[in-house]
Amino acid sequence: MLLKNKNITVVGLGKTGIGLINYLHKEGANIFVSVAKPLSELTEPLASLKHIPIKLEADVHTDFIYEGKDLVVISPGVDISAPLFKKAASAVEVISEVELAYRRLHGKLIAVTGTKGKSTTTSLIYEIVKSAGIPAFIGGNIGNPLINEVDKVKPEGYLISEVSSFQLEAVKNFRPHIAVVTNITEDHLDRHKSMEKYTKLKSRIFQNQTKEDFLILNYDDEITKGLAASAKSDIYYFSKNTKPERGAFVKDGAICTVDSRGFVSEIIRTEKIKLKGAHNIENLLAACCMIPILNIKKETAVKAIENFKPLSHRLEFVRQVNGVKFYDDSKGTNPACVMSALRSFTEPVILIAGGRPKETDFSYMAKLITEKVKYFVAIGEAKDLLIEEVLKYKKIPVYKTDDFEEAVLRARDMANAGDVVLLSPACTSFDMFKNAEERGNKFKEIINKL
Q: Which of 146, 208, 400, 445 has its CA 20 to 30 A from that of 200?
C-alpha cells in the first residue's frame, strides 16, 4: 500500500493518532488531522508533533475529513457508524489503524480479542513466542499502537496484537495468521447496541483467514465456541473442563497441550503459576496453544510462564497493610471481569465499584456481590444503580460517594486483618478519570501512603 504523496486524514489525536501521524510523515504522506476536542486540550500532543507539517481541524469533524483525500484512518475511540463517517466511507476508504498496520506488515500477525483477558493473553503469548527465539513484537489495544511496531518486524518475525471491538469495526483485509478469541460476554453495548452486533464485530478477527491460518477459541464459552461454524481456519480449542481434539486443557491440576497428531504434553502444574484467579488459567490455556502450533519447546515456554507477572491494573496485588490485602483491578470495566475477580478470593472482600456505566445489566454481578462481599463501596455515576441492584438480592452494608479517595479510605476503615480490599469497577473511568490506568494509579497512590 503506497503512502508517499497521498492525502490522508487521521481522526483522533491520542496515542493512536500520534503514532499514525509519525508513521505517515516518515512514509511521505500529506496529513490532515481531525479532532473533536477543542484546541485548548491539544497542547501536549501538538507539541510532540511540532516537527511534522500537518493541517488540523479541532473541536469538530467536517467534510474536510474526506474531501480531496485518498484515505481516512480512524482511532479506536471514533464511532465509524456516525453519519459523517458513513458519508466519508461512500467517498473514500475509511479504515482503522490496525488495518493500516496489517497492510504494511512484512512479518506474521497473531491477534487476540475477547471481552476479558485480552491483555494478559496477548502478553503471555508474546513471552512464550519470544522464549523460543522467534523475533516477536507486541502492540495494539494493549497501550502501544500497532503502527509503532510495524517496521521492526521482518518476514520471519511475529507481531502480537491485542485487538478491541472498536478497532475491528473498520478492518477489511486484516488477516492474522493466528487469531485468538478469549471469550465473549456483554460489554460496550452503549456503542454496539446489541450482543449480536458485538459478537459479529469480534468474529471479524478471523473473517479473512484461510485453511492455512489458525483460530484459537474458548471451548467453555458457548458464544465463542459457536464462532467455529463460520471459520475457515484450522481450529484449536482451550478448555478447563474438556480435552479438545487440538489445543490446551487442564488435567489433574496441570496445564496440558494436545497437538495435531493427538499427542498430549504436560506443560506446567497450576500451583506454579503466579497469576491469580480461574480466568487467568483460561488466559494461560489460550496462550499455551502457541506451543503445538509453532512447535515451541516445552522447556522454554515453561520458563516464560513461570517468570510472567500480572499486568498493571488487572487483579494486581498492591500491598498488605495491617493484615489487609489491597488489589487493583481497575481494568475490570464490565461485570464479567468483576465476577472473575471476586471468584479469585476465598477471603472476605470489601469491593469498590462504579464509574460510568456502559448500559450493562448488573443483575448477575449484583447477586454475586451479595454472596462474596462483606462491604460494598459504590462510586461515580453508576453508584445508585449498583446499590439498587445489590439490595434487590440481599441487604449488605453499602456506602456511596463521588470522592474516589474517600471511597478507598472508607474501604480501608471497613476492613479487618485477613480481608481483601478490591477495586474492580465494572464501569469505565470517564466520569472521574481520563482512563482506567489513571484510576488504578490513583488507587495505588492512596494505598502506598497508608
A: 146
How far is the C-alpha of 303 from the C-alpha of 416, rounded, in Å?
A: 37
**The residue to which cell 500520534 is assigned:** 18
pLDDT digits (tens, 9 = 90+) for 176-232: 999 999 999 865 555 555 888 889 999 999 999 999 999 999 999 999 999 999 999
Confidence of residue 1 (pLDDT cuts 50, 70, 90): confident
- β-strand partners of 112: 162, 180
Element holding 143 (H helix, E strand): none
Could you tell me the three cell numbers for 350? 470489601
Task: Tell me how far apart the alpha carbons of residues 76 and 16 are, in angstroms, rounded to a whole number.
Answer: 8
Structural domains in the chain, sorted by start: 7-92 (3.40.50.720), 99-307 (3.40.1190.10), 316-448 (3.90.190.20)
Confidence of residue 368 (pLDDT cuts 50, 70, 90): very high
3-class state of residue 262 by DSSP:
coil
Q: What is the spatial distance between Cα 284 and Cα 257, in angstroms, rounded to a whole number?
A: 11
Q: CA 242, CA 414: separation in Å to the nearest integer?
A: 41
pTM of structure = 0.84
Q: Which of 117, 111, 115 is nearest to 174 (CA)?
A: 111
354: alpha, beta or left, given left = phi > 0 and alpha = psi -120 to 50? left
